[in-house]
Amino acid sequence: MYNLLKNIDISLSEEQKIIFNKFTDLFIQYNQNVNLISRNEVNFLFEKHIYDSLSINLFLKNYKNNNMKMLDIGTGGGFPAIPCSILYDNLNIFAVDSINKKINFIKYISNTLKLNNIHPICSRMEDLNIKYKNSFDYAASRAMAELRIILEYSIPYIKKDGFFIAYKSIKADEELHNAQNALKILNTKLIEKIDYKLPIKENNKRVLLIFQKQSDCPVDFPRKNGIIKKNPL
Q1: pLDDT tier at 64 (50, 70, 90 boundaries)?
Q2: For 161, left (φ over 0), alpha (ψ -120 to 50), or beta?
Q3: Residue 168, SS3?
Q4: Domain that holds residue 164
Q5: Contacts of 144 (CB under 8 A, 6+ apart)
Q6: Is 61 helix (H, G, I), strand (E, B) or coil?
Q7: b/e map of 35-73 (b: 16 or more CB within 10 Å)?
Q8: C-alpha count within 13 angstroms, C-beta hemisphere, residue 1
Q9: What is the CA radius of gyration of the chain?
Q10: Between the CA of residue 115 and those of 23, 49, 58, 90, what are the distances in Å?
Q11: CATH at 32
Q12: 171 — phi, psi (to 5°)?
């Protein structure tokens, strides 16, 4: 199955393949007791979750340098954080989720597989420590929220000239249209759309929306969670 990754310009080392095999086994075992993803989704763990997470390489292959920092917002069962931590061992990844059982799983995987470049944080994004503001080279979010909402969660934590990568599917253009006001307020612009396909037969079209932060955004962002969802930008 790993030969499919050539479609997103990835060639894994034998060591990386071994680590991914171990991660897959551990994920399936853990998911039997703790519901990280649905039982049906487990059957497509590589195609829908690992492969999809690694599609970020279509962007990062041109921008990634040593010792950079990425924020994974709403990481859930560790996607894209864990696959990215295996692929990019010199990228420091901070994986944030508000559900403790999911953060505990990432800690378990990190310790078991000795992934020293992943840093799990249990927090809501609007409550994330202020020390993280304007500190990340990249932020990414996969299947978490509507674009204009996730932009408000992410942009305040990215450095000026840093990038936000949004994993989106069929509603990408609609969400992008609705996010124009948010982009203006947060001093951010879309710089690239990268289309790709998952290695499945149906509903396989995906897109990475790449945004760049042009200048500092207002200091009172992100607002509290209730306000963000009830009154999105």
Answers
A1: low
A2: left
A3: strand
A4: 2-230
A5: 73, 74, 76, 150
A6: coil
A7: ebbeeeebebbbbbbbbbbbbbbbbbeeebeeebbbbbb
A8: 15
A9: 17
A10: 11, 18, 22, 11
A11: 3.40.50.150
A12: -95, 15
Q: Say if strands 118-122 and 136-142 run parallel, antiparallel, or are unpaired.
A: unpaired
User: In the beta sheet, which residues pair with residue 193?
Assistant: 209
Q: How many other C-beta atoms can be found within 10 angstroms of the C-beta atom of residue 15?
A: 10
Cβ 103 vs Cβ 82: under 8 Å? no
> Is it the case that residue 65 has pLDDT exceeding 80?
no
State yes or no: pLDDT of 67 exceeds 70: yes
Rounded (5°) CA angle 192-130-224: 80
Tell me the mean pLDDT in the region 71-87. 97
At what angle are helices 14-31 and 100-113 packed, to 10 degrees? Answer: 140
The angle subtended at Cα 228 by Cα 142 and Cα 38, nearest 5°, is 35
State what percent of residues in the chain have pLDDT above 90.
90
User: How many domains, in total, are found in the chain?
Assistant: 1
CB 66 within 8 A of CB 17: no
Q: How far is CA 152 from the centre of its chain?
A: 15
**Cα end-to-end distance, the chain, whole Å:** 41
Interstrand relation of 91-97 and 68-73 (parallel, antiparallel or unpaired) = parallel
Residues sharing a CB contact under 8 Å with residue 181, sequence separation 6 or more, in sequence order = 148, 233
